[in-house]
Amino acid sequence: MSDDLTEEILGRMRTAGFALAGVCDARPIDRPDMFEAWLQAGHGGEMDWLAKHLAERIDPGVLVPGARSVVCVADRYADGRADRREPGHGRIARYARGGDYHAIMRERLEPIAEALRDRHPGHRFRVCVDSAPIAERDHAVRAGLGRIGKHTLLIGSGGRGSWLVLGCMVTTAQLRPSAAMPGDPCGSCTRCIDACPTRAIEPWKVKADRCISYLTIEHAGDPAAWFRDRSDDWLFGCDACIEACPHSQPTQRSRRLGIHPAYAGGVASLSLEDVVRWQSRDWERFASHGVLRRAPLERWRRNAALLQQRRQARG
Ligand code: SF4
Ligand code: SF4
C-alpha cells in the first residue's frame, strides 16, 4: 500500500479543484442483488444499458483487470438557492444548466491519469465519468465523500448537499483507503419522499420509470397518465427531492463552499410556448452540450406540450 502515491493523487485532485476526493478499495459493491432486483422489477425503464455489462458495474476488477483501488471525486455544481419562477416557463435541472459535467471532469481527470501513467508505468489508471459501467455512488460512499439519503443520492460531506456530480479513476495501484462517514443521514425525515411529484421514492429506492428526470430525458414513449397529471414545472430533469432535503438547503456555510466556476450560469428555465414551437435550428442553438442533447428535439417539445396542457386543464 502506498501512502505517498495516495497523497500524490489526492493532492492532484485538490489542485484540480474537485470539491471532494477520496479513495476506496476496488472490491465489488455490497448489495448487487438489490440492483438486480430493481432492474428485474422494470424500474430502469428503457435504460437498457444499465443491464448490460452488469459484471463490470458490480465489480471494478472486471472493468479494469487487477484493479485494487478506486479514486472518487465530486464537483459541486449548485448551492441550492431557490429559482426565480417565470410564469409560463418550465425549469431545467441545475446539473444541466452550466457546462457538460462529463467534459468538465474529464478534462481535469485525464491529464492527471496521464501524468500518473508516466510516473508509475507499472500501473493502470482508467478515468470513468459516466463513460464506463461503474457504481460511482457506492464507491464514493466507501471513499468517504458522503452518505446515501433516502432519495438514493449522495449527500456530500461538509454540508455540500447532493448538488454533486461524480467521477472515478480505477487503478491497479494499492492506495490507502479513506475513512467512510458513519451513520444514517436521514433518521425519521421523509421530506424528499413527500416532495416527489410522481411518488417515485421509497426509502433508499427510486423507481426510475416513475422519475421525472428519467421521463423527461430518457423516455421516448408516451408518458403515463400519472406523469401527465403531475403538478410541478420541470421541463428537463427534476431537482425536487434535492431541493426538499435539509442537507442540500443553502446556508451561509454551504454558500461559502462555492461551486466550480465551470458550472456557473446557464439557462434555468424556458418559455413553454417557445419550446413547443422549436425547430431543429432552435434546439441546435440551445442544446449546446451533451447533457442537454440527451433529449432530442421531439422530447423537449413533448415535455413542454405536456406542461402546457396540464396548466391549461388546471385553469
Ligand atoms: S428527481 Fe424528481 S421525480 Fe425523480 S425521484 Fe427526485 S423528486 Fe422524484
Ligand atoms: S430529505 Fe430527508 S429523508 Fe430525504 S435524503 Fe434528505 S435527509 Fe434523507
Report on the structure:
The protein is an alpha+beta fold. The protein has two domains: 152 residues, no CATH class; 123 residues, no CATH class. 37% of the residues lie in helices and 15% in strands. The protein has 15 helices and eleven strands. β5 and β6 form a beta hairpin. The radius of gyration is 20 Å and the shape is globular.
Summarize this entry quickly.
By secondary structure, the chain is an alpha+beta fold. Helix content is 37%, strand content 15%.
What's the pLDDT, averaged over the residues? 92
Order of helices and strands: HEHHHEEHEHEEEHEEHHEHHEHHHH
- Domain unit count: 2
Q: State the secondary-structure class.
A: alpha+beta
What fraction of residues sit in β-strands?
5-15%
From the spread of the alpha carbons, the general shape counts as: globular
What percent of residues adopt helix (DSSP H or I)?
25-40%
Main β sheet profile:
4 strands, antiparallel
Number of helices: 15
Span of the ends, CA to CA? 65 Å
Q: Which molecules are bound besides the chains?
A: iron/sulfur cluster
| Low-confidence spans | none
Strand line-up in the sheet with most strands: 1-2-7-4
Q: How many individual β-strands? A: 11
Name the features.
15% strand, binds iron/sulfur cluster, three-stranded mixed beta sheet, 315 residues, four-stranded antiparallel beta sheet, alpha+beta
Topology:
Elements: H1 3-15, E1 20-25, H2 32-40, H3 54-58, H4 60-63, E2 69-76, E3 89-92, H5 101-119, E4 125-128, H6 136-142, E5 146-148, E6 154-156, E7 164-171, H7 191-195, E8 201-202, E9 205-206, H8 212-217, H9 225-228, E10 234-236, H10 240-244, H11 252-257, E11 269-271, H12 272-276, H13 280-286, H14 290-293, H15 297-313
Parallel strand pairs: 3-10
Antiparallel strand pairs: 1-2, 2-7, 3-11, 4-7, 5-6, 8-9
